[in-house]
Amino acid sequence: MINLSYQSKFANTDIDYLFEAILALRTKEDCYRLFEDLCTVKEVRDMALRLKVAKLLHSKVSYQIIMGEIQASTATIGRVNKSLRYGADGYKLIFDRLSKPTTDQYPTVK
Q: Is a pLDDT exceeding 80 seen at residue 3?
């Protein structure tokens, strides 16, 4: 069960504004536009890799297969695994939401 009253340890008004901006995005194109301006290409790729590793670990794929298939480092895999086990359940929240059919007005990001 995901805690609905979660309080982040690093919340502040600047981060709140960032998240409000992200929540205002409606399409993948909107996401590409903001993240290309906001992040380096490497930062976006690193986030995408961590999400992919989390998805594989969540699906019970082994470290060895993940290392071989997507060439993620053991440090990255370990960090993601730690977040899956002891983190704020953000990965689980996204996996749950992306696995359910949506009736939103916005297209699903895949």
A: no
